[in-house]
Amino acid sequence: MNKEKTAVKTTYFSIIGNTILAVSKFLAGYFGNSYALIADGIESTTDIFSSFLVLFGIKYSSKPADKNHPYGHGRAEPLVTFLVVGFLITSATIIAYQSIIHIVTPHELPKPYTLIFLAIIIIWKEISYRIVVKKSKETNSSALKADAWHHRSDAITSVAAFIGISIALIFGKGYESADGWAALFASGFILYNSYLIFRPALGEIMDEHLYDDLIGEIRKVSITVPGIIDTEKCFIRKAGMQYHVDLHATVRADISVKQGHDLSHKLKDTLRQEIPDLGHILIHTEPYEQNL
Hints:
Number of helices: 8
Radius of gyration: 25 Å
CATH superfamily of the largest domain: Cation efflux protein transmembrane domain
Structural class: mainly alpha
Strand order of the largest sheet: 1-2-3
Distance between the termini: 49 Å
Oligomer: single chain
Helix content: 55-70%
Order of helices and strands: HHHHHHHEEHE
Number of domains: 2
CATH class of the largest domain: Mainly Alpha
CATH topology of the largest domain: Alpha-lytic protease prodomain-like
Largest sheet: 3 strands, mixed
Strand content: 5-15%
């Protein structure tokens, strides 16, 4: 299964899971007198829409290069990640606003069975996070990583809700607003996660230098090609699930232009074979004049 199919399949997993959870949370929160659960349902609802955005971004970014996009469409992925972050910030703001209203408005204590429901959600969302984040690493997908953090933030909001409801049930009358405070805390955590997701995507858009390990691997593979003496500059840009490379390779100064051209192609082929994640590779040859 190629990277695009893996990422798409993982995104469908997120969409189906979040849809089931959103409906369940709203119902359990409404009948169980828990705003923390309703807030959790709001967060899961935004997750559904953000997962659809991730799905669009993955499919669009995987389109091949064309006349207007010679480097492909990979930059669509971090742009979609920005939109996903926007959904997270929006959901956090809504949850915070409604939490404050809920705190100052008298209401009944949550029902005890909501704790059992929350425990199941926490386990499921943490499992979902681990599945999706593993696939994001396999596919080098920043959008899929953002989707994974949606699952993790959902698990955290559920933990906060669990704690808030527990406090309300243990201490009883006068502590009805504990789950509201839990939802307010969860909104702050969602905002913090939004920054953690936004920062790497911004670095990708700005071509930030973040790939020392990959550069080391490229240099190591390059000198295994007969005729390539060493490497000099090596710049990497990430676009979607691929890495575009500009590499300066040192060759003998007394070889012909044709030989240098052939060496460049041989180096490209070797790099693509040994490091499948590489996309466009530009090789610039540098003359090596010692020991002639």
